[in-house]
Every structure is written in C-alpha cells, then in structure tokens.
Amino acid sequence: MASLAGLIPLPDAAGLLPKWQLLVAVMAVFNTVQNFTTLKLTRRVYDRVPPELVTPLQARTFAIWTLTSAVVRFYAAYHIDQKIVYDMALFTYLIAFGHFSSELLIFRTAKLNPGVISPVIVSTTSLIWMFRQYDFYVQR
User: Fold this and answer.
1) What is the pTM of this model?
2) Where are the alpha helices (DSSP H) in 13-82?
C-alpha cells in the first residue's frame, strides 16, 4: 500500500478525491501547528487590520477550527463512500469558502494575497470536485 511520506497509508477508494482529502487534511494539521506557534502568517492573512487585533486567542481559535476540519477531511479520505462523512467534508469546504470570502468581501479584513488565495482555491476546487463526484462516491 502506498503512503503519504511513508507515514500515512493512502486511501484505497478509487479516484483522486480521497487522496486529495488526505493531502488537504495533512496541510491543515501543519496550519494548525503554525497557528499555535506564531502569529506571523495569520497576520498576513488579516492584513487590513492593525496587527495587534490579530491576537494569540484568535490564532488558537482558528487553529482548533482548522484542526476540526482536518479531522473531518482525514476521516472522509478513508470513508468517502459514506454519505454523512462526505457531506460533512463538503461542508468544511463551504465554511472555509464562506469565511475567507466574507473576510475579503464583507468585513474587508483581508486582501488577495497568498495567505487568502490558497484557502479560497482549495475550498472552491474541493467544493466543485465534490459536487461533481457526489454520485460516484456516495451510494444512497
């Protein structure tokens, strides 16, 4: 069985979507660690507010939200055929898209930069991919 960096076995399900879920989950764990250890990258995302408004508390809260999404996506990587799991993973991307879009367009606390573009691209790509592949993976 192939593995991710030799540590995590790759999902057995057909197609690339389960492997994508695993990759995004692993990246989210790294983002979680970053949010617990430094404010530097978080302040880059919310760069239209004074740096002192991006607090350690906010970063830790964001870290827990990111870790929760990672757990759901990790589980979806290995159980992508289960409707409830698939739906929950899909909603994590919808929430991420809504959050970053609202920070860009409504609250205007962020501007287009790599820290914002990356989660917008990942969430948009994942949403479209999951909607298009729903019937392939989920047996109702």
Assistant:
1) 0.92
2) 17-37, 40-45, 56-78
